[in-house]
Design a protein that fits this description.
alpha+beta; 17 strands; nine-stranded antiparallel sheet
Length: about 525
């Protein structure tokens, strides 16, 4: 029986699932979908297919894991989507060869497993097993070990990337600090779909993986929750990360406060902890953190492993927590990290979604917390608002390395919290109410005394906020004339990215609604 072709057209039964996004809003119609998908098995097959695509005057887009939040990949009428998820199994070079090689198509769960089993190391990347390394790393992805180890891009020393020159020729570039420093910097955090197709990342060194971690889950029921109690919960959480959380002995602690809409029933908190040496011999830092919330009447819950952005499951009939008494899961790091699997590459169970982001340099003000309470309890007619939430991630620690702000395209190196506003629903008819609620909430939070009137409605860099995160793209922001500064700061980074764009993608082959612009007048 002959092997199936790696080119998937609309007549192929695979097209329906491979042409869709995990966000069921995209493509919005069949007319906006790609014409075909190519699934190359080698870099040379990818290069040949890309050259043919360009020679035929078609637009290419690229996908590694299929987790893009906006319509930057699958919305490509008449174009070709290159799915690089099968570029995932080359031998990873190890310390004896001088560096680690991470293929762009590998899923994070598989990468964690391989790096740990072969070398005992890890990367401080995300909690979702099926995210592809290509988009995650190029956009400055972070995860549960980021406070202890920094960002994955901080370890990247080179990339292999297919670029397109002014004459339309596809070329492989091996970008290092010595050969193509401006391109390397751009590939270390500016986001995918800007300069070409990254096929591999190189790291000279990687941090040793923890031997074990402790994870926890707490719930704060909405029933009986008053505005005053909510303000206390949110400001207590933020105060810790603004103060105690800056101390190095806390950097092995990463937490996610999931502020869900009241329709969801409760507010959840997940977390993972290890000592800086990767053990759990001394749990005093974790107990100190958890004891702060006793007066908020937490209920113990089954922690989510890995702690994804969802609510931990309450333990039925469990008593209110008491000092030092919490349900903890003490597990080997690898079990805690990849204990759950899942499908990838555009599969799974899509749902409709929208996302926004914000970095915070300081704790919540009480006024900010009251705005949260207002919108998290707001009714939108008969629309069920379950699945609407803000995931408030602890940040800082080793991520706040000013030297890395100069070497990478991740400029936000002063934040204590990183926020992901999330909105999930199933029915198309709920789109209007869901999006209205989301925009109103986000706009009001980032307005008032906390923000300069010129930048009202956004977390523009200042005393309180530190902009948005490009791996959580939000096309609402492009309505702002300063949207590039929201994502790339007000310093020399964005001009440098534009310079690299002009040099390595002179025809703007790689573009989407929020891609780096070739120039100010483009």
């Amino acid at each position: 029986m002959p092997l199936a072709k790696s080119i998937v057209t609309k007549q192929d039964p695979r097209f329906e699932i491979l042409s869709r996004s995990r966000n069921d809003r995209f493509p919005a119609s069949a007319a906006e979908a790609v014409a075909q998908i190519e699934v190359p098995g080698t870099v040379e097959e990818l290069r040949t297919g890309l050259q043919k695509c360009l020679s035929e005057g078609k637009r290419p887009t690229v996908r590694s894991g299929g987790h893009c939040y906006e319509d930057f990949v699958v919305n490509n009428p008449g174009g070709v989507l290159f799915d690089v998820s099968q570029l995932s199994n080359p031998e990873l070079a190890g310390p004896s060869q001088g560096r680690y090689i991470i293929p762009a198509g590998v899923q994070l769960g598989d990468l964690y497993t391989t790096l740990y089993k072969k070398y005992g190391v890890g990367i401080p990347a995300g909690t979702c097993y099926t995210v592809g390394a290509g988009g995650h790393i190029s956009g400055g992805g972070y995860g549960l070990l980021a406070r202890r180890d920094g960002l994955t891009v901080d370890y990247v020393s080179a990339v292999d990337i297919l670029t397109v020159d002014a004459k339309g020729k596809v070329e492989m570039v091996h970008a290092t600090k010595q050969t193509h420093p401006e391109l390397l910097r751009a590939c270390r955090g500016a986001g995918g779909g800007n300069y070409g197709v990254i096929t591999a990342f190189y790291c000279d060194d990687l941090p040793k993986a923890p031997s074990q971690v402790a994870s926890f889950g707490l719930n704060f029921p909405w029933q009986g929750m008053t505005e005053a109690k909510f303000v206390k919960l949110l400001t207590t959480y933020g105060k810790y990360w603004e103060t105690r959380g800056k101390d190095p002995d806390t950097w092995g602690l990463f937490t996610i406060l999931v502020c869900s809409h009241a329709n969801g029933g409760s507010i959840g908190m997940n977390g993972q902890f290890c000592n800086p040496d990767g053990t759990c011999k001394d749990m005093s830092v974790l107990y100190e953190f958890l004891d702060q919330f006793l007066e908020c009447n937490p209920r113990p819950a089954v922690a989510v492993n890995p702690p994804e952005r969802t609510l931990p499951t309450p333990i039925p009939n469990a008593p209110v927590c008491s000092p030092g008494a919490y349900r903890l899961n003490l597990r080997h790091w690898l079990d805690a990290t990849v204990g759950r699997g899942g499908g990838g590459g555009g599969g799974g169970n899509p749902q409709r979604a929208d996302y926004k982001s914000s970095h915070m340099k300081k704790n919540y003000t009480e006024d900010e917390a009251r705005v949260y309470f207002k919108h998290l309890t707001r009714k939108m007619g008969n629309t069920d608002m379950s699945g609407a939430m803000v995931a408030v991630d602890s940040y800082g620690g080793k991520t706040n390395n000013p030297q890395m702000a100069r070497e990478t395209a991740n400029w936000q190196r002063n934040s204590i919290l990183k926020l992901q506003y999330q909105n999930y629903w199933r029915r198309r008819e709920d789109d209007a109410a869901r999006l209205e609620w989301f925009r109103d909430f986000y706009t009001e939070v980032h307005s008032g005394a906390r923000q300069d009137a010129k930048y009202a409605g956004t977390p523009f860099d200042g005393a309180h906020y530190e902009g948005c995160y490009i791996n959580y793209p939000d096309i609402d922001m492009i309505e702002k004339p300063y949207w590039e500064q929201l994502y790339f700061g007000t310093g020399d980074l964005y001009p440098a990215l534009q310079k690299a764009k002009a040099k390595y993608d002179p025809n703007n082959v790689w573009h989407h609604k929020m891609s780096v612009r070739p120039g100010r007048n483009a």
